Amino acid sequence: MRAAFMYSAGDVRIEQIPDPVIERPTDAVVRVVRSCICGSDLHPYHSRTENDARTTMGHEFVGVVEDIGAEVATVRTGDFVIAPFAWSDGTCEFCLAGLQTSCVHGGFWNDARHGVLGGQAEAVRVPLADGTLFAVPGIAEDSPLVPSLLTLSDVYGTGWHAARTAGVGAGDTVVVIGDGAVGLLAVLSARQLGADQIILMGRHEVRTDLGRRFGATDVVADRGAEGIAQVRELTPGGLGAAKVLEAVGHMPAYRQAVGVLRPGGTISRVGVPQYEEAPVGFRSLFGKNATLTGGPAPVRAYIEELLPAVLSGEVDPGLVFDRTVTLDEVPRGYREMDERTALKVLVTP
Amino acid sequence: MRAAFMYSAGDVRIEQIPDPVIERPTDAVVRVVRSCICGSDLHPYHSRTENDARTTMGHEFVGVVEDIGAEVATVRTGDFVIAPFAWSDGTCEFCLAGLQTSCVHGGFWNDARHGVLGGQAEAVRVPLADGTLFAVPGIAEDSPLVPSLLTLSDVYGTGWHAARTAGVGAGDTVVVIGDGAVGLLAVLSARQLGADQIILMGRHEVRTDLGRRFGATDVVADRGAEGIAQVRELTPGGLGAAKVLEAVGHMPAYRQAVGVLRPGGTISRVGVPQYEEAPVGFRSLFGKNATLTGGPAPVRAYIEELLPAVLSGEVDPGLVFDRTVTLDEVPRGYREMDERTALKVLVTP
């Protein structure tokens, strides 16, 4: 079968590899119906060097179960399934607590140590299939709902995690930093959770227009001190927002989050931090009793909760896909996302 | 009157200054019955230079109201009062939300910009007396309850803030880092909130013995990797504690907090950070969905809640005072706390 591999920065290739097979009794093999390219895929697309071994790519996919191991009980051959961006056993204390991204037996896609490959491929061996996969009955492969279902594998659940861990509720003022797919779906999530005022910080008008469609009440395009001042101006009393959702992962976004935060407020980060150290002392977080939370979203925990509104068409998170490429065209998909000419790229087989 | 002044590091002097008077109609003048020296007073005691202007000291005191301004309504001359370590109007949105340390009109003691002096003195002008002071009826100046009431001005409320913001509740495993007065009272607070297992990290046996009396179930004296390993060993499944209370403020304590934290857990910091940057990236906080919270405790908000158990003698937080000096002896009190021969020093007039 074909699968996408990343070599050094900017170098993505489609290559032939053996078809996946059941290796353990808890495995399933899933034929990929749709996958996609993630904003976080751009981090290695920028940072990898010639010294890095090639790696498979892709951690978001929906597909059809082609084969299951002897111990798999909750999905069957032929099921349409959503694969979250982390695989998990579904039975450990963290999975039971809804924190599948900390599963004691789980892991992430594209991890050569576990022989686990990626979703930008024709098929994938899924470890711990019972805990990992979520079957959705009655979905045809060409259903118009497929793009929205695909967002439940990462970006929608990640935006939801930001809003949930920040404690967004009725009447809140919320700031969302970042107009990528996660930021836009954090806007949608904040609206679903009842926020009154949702200020989206982003400077790509096509994206922020979609953000308004998802529920943003204000858009601030400026960054840095000017952007912070404009956001604060919009908040009650000019004192900042009590809930800030950071969906970028770079240090300037972190600083913006701190800058617009109201005393006693919460910053939830879901953009994978591209830094290890950050300001957290008296002048940034401590002095105003700020709370910093978030992390890799346990999207598996949220599928059940988010699915009904997707199936009913009440929400359409799949609108974040504005470009479609075939698997063979995936290298072009990376280029277009990197150049910001595409917001999020859907991949067909 | 006499008041303590700090010059450069290690140089504390008692000097004569004019008696405080009412300057604004919202002021009160309080004669100090007991004040004390705080672990956080040791930070300037180490770091100040010859270039710093002298400053008054002390931010914890109880006393008797000697005079009030024309607009003061909630305290009267002769009242025994507790003065929290922050002064606040009691009416702004942050005060009403119980975050008096972010009061829009408030501030901290020993702030020359506001003409506000400190509690290590014979008397203090208290701004915004209605919002700041808490009157306790029926307390004689020589009541044995006075030391415990004095802890409500800072260290007890600060330990309580750590436990509260970490969300400590029934059955929890809690790690407390630091065996100073705040750490020990964080232990007491965690016990009051129902924690089952309270692991105290500290290496001064007299102090950790008091920690056991306050409710610590385990004591770990080692620090660094060894201390982290020992704490984890004690926690369920060896996976760390979900609630970690950091009552020191130095970077090694922060690293210990990260090291013993269970995935999905919360670190609450109440030790004033002596750093601005700290690890918060994938390897420290983000990857395990850790929450970082805490800050300057709004102790004013907690007095009403904590007072009954103090008045009934159910708890005795005043046990943290193991040395008493007169105001004239305050320089010696600093030395003894700095040399760790005293845990916390009570100051009589």
What's the arrangement of secondary structure elements?
The structure is a homodimer of 349-residue chains.
Chain A: E1 2-6, E2 12-16, E3 28-36, H1 42-47, E4 55-56, E5 61-68, E6 80-83, E7 86-87, H2 93-96, E8 107-108, E9 123-126, H3 129-132, E10 134-135, H4 146-151, H5 155-165, E11 173-177, H6 181-192, E12 197-201, H7 205-214, E13 218-220, H8 224-234, E14 241-246, H9 251-260, E15 261-269, E16 277-279, E17 291-294, H10 299-311, E18 323-326, H11 330-338, E19 345-348
Domain Alcohol dehydrogenase-like C-terminal (chains A, B): 181-299
Protein name (chains A, B): IMP dehydrogenase
Family (chains A, B): Belongs to the zinc-containing alcohol dehydrogenase family.
Commentary on this structure:
Chains A, B: Belongs to the zinc-containing alcohol dehydrogenase family. Chains A, B: This is IMP dehydrogenase. Chains A, B: Keywords: Metal-binding, Oxidoreductase, Zinc. 2 copies of one chain form a homodimer. With 349 residues, the first copy, chain A, is α/β, with parallel strands linked by helices. Chain A is built from 11 helices and 19 strands. The first copy, chain A, has helices at 42-47, 93-96, 129-132, 146-151, 155-165, 181-192, 205-214, 224-234, 251-260, 299-311, 330-338; strands at 2-6, 12-16, 28-36, 55-56, 61-68, 80-83, 86-87, 107-108, 123-126, 134-135, 173-177, 197-201, 218-220, 241-246, 261-269, 277-279, 291-294, 323-326, 345-348. In chain A, the strands form 4 sheets. In chain A, strands 3, 5, 6, 9, 10, 18 and 19 form a 7-stranded mixed β-sheet that branches. In chain A, a hairpin with a 5-residue loop joins strand 1 (2-6) and strand 2. In chain A, helix 5 (155-165) crosses helix 6, helix 5 (155-165) crosses helix 10 (299-311) and helix 6 packs parallel to helix 7 (205-214). The A-B interface holds A 93-94, 97, 99, 101-102, 104, 165, 237, 239, 263-264, 269, 272-273, 275-296, 298 and B 93-94, 97, 99, 101-102, 104, 165, 237, 239, 263-264, 269, 272-273, 275-296, 298.
